[in-house]
From TrEMBL:
Belongs to the NAD(P)-dependent epimerase/dehydratase family. GO terms for biological process: cell wall organization; UDP-D-apiose biosynthetic process. Its cofactor is NAD(+). This is UDP-glucuronate decarboxylase. GO terms for molecular function: identical protein binding; protein heterodimerization activity; UDP-D-apiose synthase activity; UDP-glucuronate decarboxylase activity.
Length: 385
């Protein structure tokens, strides 16, 4: 049966140039596009480990609809050609791990702003649609975080719910280099928005709110550098797998909402296939019902991991560290991030489905299945030598 868009029109197969397709979000988006649609993907990245299962063997049912192009968008003239022969470009490429924002601020700014410029330019010059991935970090801190802790206004959603078309972007001082990422993302958003307003660029901007699931980042010492610091899910998974205490930065008081990657990918597919409803918009994509403090997240992950691994939790499941110790000088944080869902609901009728417990159960089952044996061997190795 022909697939139809939200307005009942048949969806025509398109060619999508997906930059950063080899990353966490890209790998899930490629999977979805291959299994549920007839679109073609030109997958651009410097790595392809996370999409290898979609590229080989050639007998796969979608073979011929996905091509991998190993290139670095910083310096490769093939990029324009790929954008030119596609109907839509999706840009996911970025340095986006908090441990890098204050320690590699230049790479962070170049990656999130400068390197995205040619992508915008080629889309504009060739009259192509662009879906650009920004971040919920562009909101920075909430207005509520500046109120006294006992102020009744702290309970008022107007002071903490983040709305695409109304909330301000509140960052720390320039010395707090943590904000280099958010600021670069904000500037590329403003540039894309201005290209839309002044020159007619057809764009959609996505602001992900903590999307998590299988294949997120790497486990240090197993499929990434031992000294690497991945994002929070992989950091905590690594501690659980190694039976080490989970490190709680500054007491784990920050609040976050987590969304299952598969729910979020449904939202992106709606944007891809409903251009008339998605173009010109900025969309929060998150799950406001899954809010926890990082401390609560750690407690839940510890319980879920015990369930999926069959191992009791260790005696001291957490240890406190300061942000300076963990992330280094120049770190800072957002207090709380709850997305407003009005715009995405109205334009695309989308809502997230998966509870935090369920998404952690699927994700940690995957982590255990994928890494537990390799970690056991890595731990056993030194004594075997
Ligand atoms: P990721 O790091 O897993 O994927 C990014 C991919 O881009 C990587 O595979 C990387 O190799 C590739 N890349 C980076 N620079 C490149 C270059 N110069 N040339 C070619 N490829 C390059 O990250 P992700 O979680 O999949 O995030 C994708 C996008 O979504 C990013 O823009 C990120 O800022 C944004 N985002 C994600 C989240 C989340 O919850 N996962 C939250 C906020 C924002």
């Amino acid at each position: 049966m022909a697939r139809v868009d939200l307005d009942g029109n048949a969806i025509k197969p398109m060619t999508i140039c997906m930059i950063g397709a080899g990353g966490f979000i890209g790998s899930h988006l490629c999977e979805k596009l291959m299994s549920d649609t007839s679109h073609t993907v030109l997958a651009v990245d410097v790595y392809n480990d996370k999409i290898k299962h979609l590229l080989e063997p050639e007998s796969l049912p979608w073979s011929g609809r996905i091509q991998f192009h190993r290139l670095n968008i910083k310096n490769d003239s093939r990029l324009e050609g790929l954008i030119k022969c596609s109907d839509l470009t999706i840009n996911l490429a970025a340095i986006c791990t908090p441990a890098d924002y204050n320690t590699r601020p230049l790479d962070t700014i170049y990656s999130n702003f400068i390197d995205a410029l040619p992508v915008v330019k080629y889309c504009l010059e060739n009259n192509k649609r662009l879906i650009h991935f920004s971040t919920c970090e562009v909101y920075g801190k909430t207005i509520g975080s500046f109120l006294p802790k006992d102020s009744p206004l702290c309970q008022d959603p107007a002071y903490y719910i983040l709305k695409e078309d109304a909330s301000p972007c509140i960052f720390g001082s320039v010395e707090k280099q943590r904000w280099s990422y958010a600021c670069a993302k904000q500037l590329i958003e403003r540039l894309i928005y201005a290209e839309g307003a002044e020159n007619g660029l057809e764009f959609t901007i996505v602001r992900p709110f903590n999307w998590i699931g299988p294949r997120m980042d790497f486990i240090p010492g197993i499929d990434g550098p031992s000294e690497g610091v991945p994002r929070v899910l992989a950091c905590f998974s690594n501690n659980l797998l190694r039976r080490e205490p989970l490190k709680l930065v500054d007491g784990g008081e920050s609040q976050r909402t987590f969304i299952y990657i598969k729910d979020a990918i449904e939202a992106v597919l709606l944007m891809i296939e409903n251009p008339a409803r998605a173009s010109g918009h900025i969309f929060n994509v998150g799950n406001p019902n899954n809010e926890v403090t990082v401390r609560q997240l750690v407690e839940m992950m510890t319980k879920v991991y015990s369930k999926v691994s069959g191992e009791d939790a260790i005696q001291t499941p957490t240890v406190d560290v300061s942000s300076k110790e963990f992330y280094g000088e120049g770190y800072d944080d957002s207090d709380k991030r709850i997305p407003d869902m009005t715009i995405i609901n109205k334009q695309l009728g989308w809502n997230p489905k998966t509870s935090l417990w369920d998404l952690l159960e699927s994700t940690l089952t995957y982590q255990h299945r994928t890494y537990a044996e390799a970690i056991k061997q890595a731990i056993a190795k030194p004594s075997a030598n």
